[in-house]
Amino acid sequence: MIMEFKLPELGENIESGDITNLLVSQGDGVSKGQSLFEVEAGKATMEIPSPVDGTIAILHVCVGDTVSVGQLVVEIEEGAATEALVAEKEPDPEPEPVVEEPPESEPVVEEQPEPAPVPEPPAPMPQAPVKTPKSPVAKALAVSASPKVRRLARELGVDIHLVTASGPAGFITDEDVKEFARNGLSSGSALAAPQTTRVEKMNAIRKATMNHMSHCWATIPHVTHHDTADITELESLRKRYATKAESVGAKLTMTAMLIKVISSALKVHPKFNCSIDPKKGEIIYKEFFNIGVAMDTPKGLLVPVIRDADKKNMVELALELKTLAEKAREGKIDAADLKGGTFTFTNIGIIGGAFFTPIVNSPEVAILGSGRAYWESCPDGGEKKFKLPLSLSYDHRIIDGADGARFLKWIIAAIEEPLLLSLEG
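^ thats the sequence. predicted structure below, dont judge the formating
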C-alpha cells in the first residue's frame, strides 16, 4: 500500500521550509524513524524521519525546493523494504533463445519507365511588398507578454521589444527577460558596455531574518545609547584565567565575560529583561536570564540562546559558546537553541567597527552591541587604556532614556571593576 507522506509541522508560525539535503533515493528501503531529508526552516535545520517501514516509491522534492507544511513530499510503499531487497538478490531469468526464420522471398516488381515531365509555364516575377510602418501602439501590441513580465522588464531596464520569446504562442516569460538582462543588453544600445545581473534565491535563514528584522524595526521605536568602557583590567583577568578555560576545551573570550556582566545587570535592572503586550497594556517581567548571542554563519545571522546565564561561571559560558558556535557553523543548530531569549548580545569587534545600531530582537526590549577594542593614550602621559565601544539599543515604549543611561552605566562600572564578578559564578 502506498503512503503519501506530507511535510509535518515544523514549529510555531512556520509555514514552509527549504530542502537542503536528500538522505534517500527512489527505490531505497527505509525503516520507521530513519531520516528521509533535511529541511531548513525558521533558521534551524531539521531531519525529517520516515513514519513507516517501506520502500521509497516516488520523491516529489529536490534539493533547493521550498515546501509548504502539508505538501506531498514522498510516497512510501509500506512494508515493501524487505521484498525490494529480496527482489534485488534474485537473478533475472535467462531469456529463451530466439530462432530466426529464413526471410521470405519478395516478389520482383518490374520498373515502369517514368513519363516525360511536362514543361511548366514560367512563374510571374514577384512584386515587392509595400512596407507600412507600424505605429507605436501597434508595435507595443505586437509584443506578447503579461503585465507582470512587462513590469519586470521595466524594473531591470530591459526593452521588452528586444527580448526573444520562448513561451507558448510567442509569449515572453519572466525568464526570457532575466536572461536578456544577464546577457548585458541594455535598452539603449547593444554597443553599451555589458552589465550583468545575478538572481539568487534566498535561503530559509535569510528569509526569516528579512521578515523578523522588518517586523522589529517597524514595530519598535528604537533608541541607541553609545559609550565606552575601560576593559584594561578585564582583559588582564581574561588572559590570567585563559588556561583554566582551555583545560576544559573552551576559550575564555571577552564575549563570555560580557555575558556574565549582562546577566548580573539584568537582575538589578529588570525592565531590560521583560517583554510587553501592547494590546493588554501589560509588562511581562521574566525571572530567568537567557542571553541570545548573535553569530555570523555562512548562511546568515543566527542567535542561539544560553539559558540561565546567571547561574553559570565564565568558563561554563565559554564552553557553551564554543558548542553553539560549532553547531551554528555546521548548520546543525536546533529550533530549541534559538528560542526563549530574554536579552541579546552582539559583538562585531572581531570584524571591526566601533559604534552601530543593533536592532532589538522582538519580543525582547533591548540589545547590547560591542565594537572593536582599541588602545587609547592618556593625555597626562599615563598608561594606555584598553577601551571597548558599547552600543545599547532599547524599546522606547517601555524604557526611558534615563533607564538606558543607568543600565549602561552599571555595565561599564562592572566591566571596569571585574573583581566584583566571580569567575566561579
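Confidence is low (pLDDT under 50) at residues 84-90, 98-113, 128-141.
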